[in-house]
Design brief:
Blueprint: E1 3-4, E2 7-8, E3 14-16, H1 25-33, E4 39-40, E5 44-45, H2 46-50, H3 54-58, E6 69-74, H4 78-90, E7 95-100, H5 105-108, H6 120-133, E8 138-143, H7 153-162, E9 168-171, H8 186-192, E10 201-204, H9 210-220, E11 224-227, H10 237-247, H11 256-273, H12 276-290, H13 298-304, H14 310-327
Parallel strand pairs: 3-11, 4-6, 5-6, 6-7, 7-8, 8-9, 9-10, 10-11
Antiparallel strand pairs: 1-2
Helix pairs in contact: 1-11, 4-6, 9-10, 11-12, 11-14
Length: about 325
């Protein structure tokens, strides 16, 4: 049984990665329904949170059915992160996660996210301050290092464990790589096999099939896997991996009707949580992923991303269901 503090996650948990503009409550709802064991909010700016920025505060929204769920924070200033962690703690998540892995310029070049990999003492001090004030487990997500010359994640793992974090997720790339090239899990495996490391170690990066999940589980011995981009438009990946790990056989892929049904669920929740207008507009980023691989889908996509009418969106989705189901065409899976 893998545990973070007293949170029981099963024998080999699958985690939904925190993704900006993706892992909001509507998206998390469909992932939870389809097998995600632990989820996180979108990452939240400490500066935005302590200044009561509306967008940052809205990201604190969590629901009982999502549990266990963590609130993820990022920032460059220790005092701000401590204050933001107290605010996040009061929102009653199951854990607080610190982002030391985000590589994007707007975050890393302002001294937050993966930038802290260049200043381990500051990372340790920041983490220590958050552990001290939090009333629930504190975890961390990071990368291998800043670049190929500074792959210091082993030191990071040992020092952060020593000051009290209760789980560590490692993305198998450096900040310099961004999301390019293949993720290298070698160091992740080395950390898991380090006799000093007692906390759960989760691997992240490039897991997009059940077969790869089983291969990496066996090869690197991690306690669980975090899945990010492969779940966008395909929340079924969690249950598919679980089924394959248990039986060694693939689970049937979702039909067109399945895809349309989940897309509708996602849209309905998005409209309830945000507003009718914002829900419709922000759902647009997901349509291509839900129907990835369908031939001649461009005309439907154009309609979906230009209408502001809920009734029209439902009409288009029903047309997609009818057309492709009759053609007995399945999307191409990765």
């Amino acid at each position: 049984m893998v545990k973070i503090g007293t949170i029981e996650l099963g024998d080999f948990p699958l985690l939904l990665a925190p993704m900006e503009d993706v892992s909001d409550p509507p998206f998390r709802a469909v992932c939870k329904k389809n097998g995600a064991d632990l989820m996180y909010t979108e990452f939240i700016s400490s500066e935005g949170l302590i200044r009561d920025a509306k967008k940052s505060l809205q990201k604190l929204d969590i629901f009982e059915y999502e549990r266990p769920i963590g609130i993820q924070l990022f920032g460059s200033e220790i005092d701000s992160m401590r204050e933001a962690a107290a605010i996040a703690d009061s929102a009653n998540p199951d854990l607080i996660d610190i982002n030391y892995g985000c590589p994007v310029r707007q975050v890393a070049c302002r001294g937050a996210g993966a930038a802290l990999l260049q200043d381990i003492p500051k990372m340790v001090e920041m983490t220590s301050e958050i552990v001290k004030i939090a009333t629930r487990p504190v975890t961390v997500k990071t990368r291998l290092g800043w670049d190929d010359n500074t792959k210091n994640v082993m030191e990071v793992a040992e020092r952060l464990q020593d000051i009290g974090i209760q789980a560590l997720t490692i993305h198998g790339r450096t900040r310099a790589q961004m999301y390019k090239g293949d993720a290298d899990w070698t160091l992740i495996g080395d950390i898991k096999n380090n006799q000093r490391i007692k906390i759960p170690i989760f691997g992240n990066g490039d897991i997009d099939t059940p077969e790869k999940a089983l291969e990496y589980k066996n090869r690197y011995g991690v306690d669980g896997i975090m899945i990010g981009r492969a779940s966008i438009g395909y929340p079924w990946i969690f249950n598919e991996i679980k089924h394959y790990l248990k039986t060694g056989t693939p689970l049937a892929s979702p039909t067109i009707a399945d895809r349309v049904a989940v897309c509708k669920e996602h849209l309905d929740f998005s409209m309830r949580w945000k507003s009718n207008h914002a829900g419709i507009v922000e759902m647009r980023r997901h349509y291509t992923n839900y129907f990835k691989g369908l031939p001649h889908f461009k005309e439907y996509r154009l309609k979906l991303v230009t209408t502001y009418s809920y009734e029209e969106v439902i009409k288009i989705l029903n047309e997609i269901d009818k057309k492709y189901s009759e053609m007995e065409i399945s999307p191409v899976i990765f």
